[in-house]
């Protein structure tokens, strides 16, 4: 089977996955306890007024009507209004989406970059005390939930050293004039540092460990011996030749780490009061704000599904040995 | 000797006359063999056993009832007291003894970790066995299900489900297991695909052994090492997820867990000063999770497939 047919089949799978994902999304948010009016009932909302709200939101229609409307609306990007803010969900999410992407994206890339360099180094010094120490540190980093790393980072860099702010995305009262003005600012980077560090520490463990073991198997192969015999300096062999050949297996965990990163945004953003999608998701679930939470859930799932596709295609593209029908 | 050889001593190659007692002794001996010379693995086993013992004996070891609000001599609530002889790890914002809370918290993490992992790997192993052995439509459908499970953002999904079904400890276990099975299903399937081509499966088929017998009597013992490895990974993830759920405020409201302690300390702003309240649950979480990763490293040396973790 050729690459084209493989990609074609993979795209069909993507559509099926998406359909099941949307159906699940519809199902779970209808099963949720309470409805958007529940939290106002204490404030003396009359049953008639409540029915009116439900009617207006279309929550009294038969389920299959709601399902069809849900599917059409979601695909066309019409995600309704937030019950809580009274504004279109799209408007609320756009800024939060970028806030999350600009935090978790760099965390993801740095985690892989540092993990690959660090893992290659550990593979190179295999069998030494340095390697063992590095390995234990990596395992401990991987064993610490993001919020625990975040708390330690806060305790050290904010409360002890006072170098960074404890949370938020910019100093209170900062003037924002444009999209770029919002992010291309020293203030933003200053706020970004700690949540970014937290993410990198947690996510780099997986690529590090994989790079290390992959490196060890490459280093045992003949061509490294030959390069050594040619008299090429060790660090050039390490990073130019051996590391290059070890990177391929590391790409197999890209999708897994993306999934972790998306989920991690909930925790990291909560710890650092980062106004992103993750924190918004946690809050909207509590407030029964279905439209917001399902839209965020949809976006997060889309990122994971899409990155899985990209990772699979990249993998077969990079490694001609993979048989396409092995999927 | 490979790990699967060791396991097989108690598995399909054992003469049928051997009693169950001897099999258990052999299984125990082979486990000891496996970890001999493996310092990290031994450390992991030691830690894990310690945590399980702590969880079982928490009610005996805890100096106080974890819910009791202690009072100072003048009758006021003993809030945020620093560690002292009476309260080795001080008290929290409600005057409760931190040491007792930490000990009881062990129960939640150990319980969720072990049960969610066992359920997840039980499902995953069976799905892997069946899909790889039968192939065809069954394989297609179940593997699409695995793909979908991979497409769901894990933590958000767990939080939504826990919120819908109620933040009760059993629900948390089931919800975590309902997503975690995908990992073991995928690797067990890959392993069974290679085992299926081996001679022993063909011979079993030739003498007319039933599918059930081939799958569970012949193939299963050979994929058990990977299943064990994935139990270790699953424990780690389950503990992290339970703690994360609790930290976000969706934990079982009736129980004290490490994640919940950190949630309370965080929301109270205590990480600025009350180290005695913040450090212990976090450190223990880290050690519990790392114990299974250390064990995993030893198991990995004996399975050594193309691991995705």
Report on this model:
The complex is a heterodimer of chains A (327) and B (309). With 327 residues, chain A is mostly helical. Chain A folds into two domains: 2-76; 94-315, MetI-like fold (Orthogonal Bundle). Helices cover 74% and strands 0% of the residues of chain A. Chain A is built from 15 helices and no strands. Chain A has helices spanning 3-31, 38-41, 47-57, 63-75, 89-124, 129-143, 146-160, 179-183, 186-203, 205-219, 222-229, 234-250, 254-271, 277-286, 290-318. In chain A, helix 10 packs across helix 12 (234-250) and helix 13 (254-271) packs across helix 14. The longest helix of chain A is centred in the first third of the chain and has 36 residues, at 89-124. The termini of chain A are close together. The mean pLDDT of chain A is 81. With 309 residues, chain B is mainly alpha-helical. Chain B has one domain: MetI-like (MetI-like fold), CATH 1.10.3720. Chain B contains eleven helices and no strands. The longest helix of chain B has 37 residues, at 98-134. Chain B is elongated. In chain B, 47% of the residues are buried. Residues 9-17 and 305-309 of chain B have low confidence and may be disordered. At the A-B interface, helix 1, helix 6, helix 7, helix 10 and helix 13 of A face helix 5, helix 6, helix 9, helix 10 and helix 11 of B.
Shape of chain A: globular
Number of strands of chain B: 0
CATH class of the largest domain in chain A: Mainly Alpha
What is CATH's topology name of chain B?
MetI-like fold
Cα shape of chain B: elongated
Q: Residue-averaged pLDDT of chain A, rounded?
A: 81
Structural class of chain B, by secondary structure, is mainly alpha
Number of helices of chain B: 11
Reading off the top of the CATH hierarchy, the class of chain B is best stated as: Mainly Alpha
Largest binding interface between chains? A-B, 58 and 45 residues
Straight-line N-to-C gap of chain A:
12 Å
Order of helices and strands of chain B: HHHHHHHHHHH
How helix-rich are the residues of chain B, as a percent range? over 70%
Looking at CATH, the homologous superfamily of chain B is MetI-like
Q: What is the CATH homologous superfamily assignment of the largest domain in chain A?
A: MetI-like
Oligomer: heterodimer
CATH architecture of the largest domain in chain A: Orthogonal Bundle
How many β-strand stretches of chain A? Answer: 0
Helical proportion of chain A, percent range: over 70%
CATH architecture of chain B: Orthogonal Bundle
Distance from first to last alpha carbon of chain B:
24 Å
């Amino acid at each position: 089977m050729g690459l084209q047919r493989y990609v074609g089949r993979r795209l069909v799978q993507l559509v099926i996955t998406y359909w099941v994902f949307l159906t699940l999304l519809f199902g779970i948010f209808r099963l949720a306890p309470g409805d958007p009016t529940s939290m106002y009932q204490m404030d003396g909302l009359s049953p008639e007024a409540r029915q009116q709200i439900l009617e207006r939101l279309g929550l009294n229609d038969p389920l299959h009507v709601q399902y069809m409307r849900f599917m059409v609306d979601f695909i066309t990007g019409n995600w309704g209004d937030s019950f809580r803010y009274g504004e279109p969900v799209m408007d609320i999410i756009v800024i939060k989406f970028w806030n999350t992407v600009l935090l978790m994206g760099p965390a993801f890339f740095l985690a892989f970059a540092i993990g690959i360099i660090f893992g290659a180094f550990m593979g190179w010094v295999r069998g030494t005390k340095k390697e063992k120490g590095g390995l234990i540190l990596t395992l401990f980093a991987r064993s610490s939930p993001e919020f625990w790393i975040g708390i330690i980072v806060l305790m050290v860099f904010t409360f002890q050293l006072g170098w960074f702010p404890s949370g938020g995305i910019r100093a209170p009262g900062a003037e924002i004039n444009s999209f770029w003005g919002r992010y291309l600012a020293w203030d933003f980077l200053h706020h970004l540092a700690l949540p970014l560090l937290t993410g990198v520490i947690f996510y780099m463990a997986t690529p590090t460990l994989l790079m290390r073991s992959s490196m060890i198997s490459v280093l045992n192969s003949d061509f490294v011996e030959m390069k050594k015999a040619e008299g090429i300096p060790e660090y050039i062999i390490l990073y130019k030749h051996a590391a290059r050949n070890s990177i391929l297996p590391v790409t197999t965990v890209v999708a897994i780490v993306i999934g972790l990163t998306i989920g991690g945004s909930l925790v990291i953003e909560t710890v650092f009061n980062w106004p992103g999608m993750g924190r918004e998701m946690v809050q909207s679930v509590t407030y029964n704000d279905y439209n917001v939470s399902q839209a965020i859930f949809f976006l997060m799932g889309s990122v994971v599904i899409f990155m899985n596709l990209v990772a699979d295609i990249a993998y077969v593209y990079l490694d001609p040995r993979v048989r396409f029908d092995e999927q | 000797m490979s790990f699967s050889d060791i396991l097989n001593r108690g598995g399909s190659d054992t003469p049928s006359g051997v009693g169950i007692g001897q099999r258990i002794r052999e299984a125990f001996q082979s486990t000891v063999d496996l970890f001999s010379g493996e310092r990290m693995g031994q450390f992991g086993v030691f830690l894990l056993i310690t945590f399980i013992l702590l969880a079982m004996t928490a009610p005996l070891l805890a100096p106080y009832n974890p819910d009791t609000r202690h009072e100072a001599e003048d009758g006021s609530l003993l809030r945020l007291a620093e560690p002292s002889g009476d309260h080795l790890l001080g008290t929290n914002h409600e005057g409760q003894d931190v040491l007792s809370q930490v000990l009881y918290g062990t129960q939640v993490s150990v319980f969720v970790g072990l049960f969610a992992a066992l359920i997840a790997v039980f499902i995953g192993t069976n799905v892997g066995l069946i899909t790889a052995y039968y192939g065809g439509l069954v394989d297609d459908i179940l593997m699409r299900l695995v793909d979908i499970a991979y497409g769901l953002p894990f933590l958000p999904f767990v939080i939504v489900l826990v919120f819908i079904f109620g933040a009760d400890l059993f629900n948390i276990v089931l919800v975590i297991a309902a997503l975690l099975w995908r990992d073991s299903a995928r690797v067990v399937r890959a392993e069974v695909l290679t085992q299926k081509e081996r001679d022993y499966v063909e011979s079993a088929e030739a003498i007319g052994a039933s599918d059930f017998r081939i799958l569970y009597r012949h193939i299963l013992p050979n994929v058990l090492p990977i299943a064990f490895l994935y139990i270790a990974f699953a424990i780690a993830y389950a503990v992290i997820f339970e703690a994360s759920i609790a930290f976000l405020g969706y934990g079982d409201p009736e129980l004290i867990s490490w994640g919940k302690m950190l949630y309370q300390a965080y929301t109270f702003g205590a990480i600025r000063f009350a180290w005695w309240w913040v450090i212990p649950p976090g450190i223990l979480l880290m050690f519990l999770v790392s114990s299974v990763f250390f064990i995993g490293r030893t198991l990995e040396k004996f399975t050594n497939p193309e691991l995705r973790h």
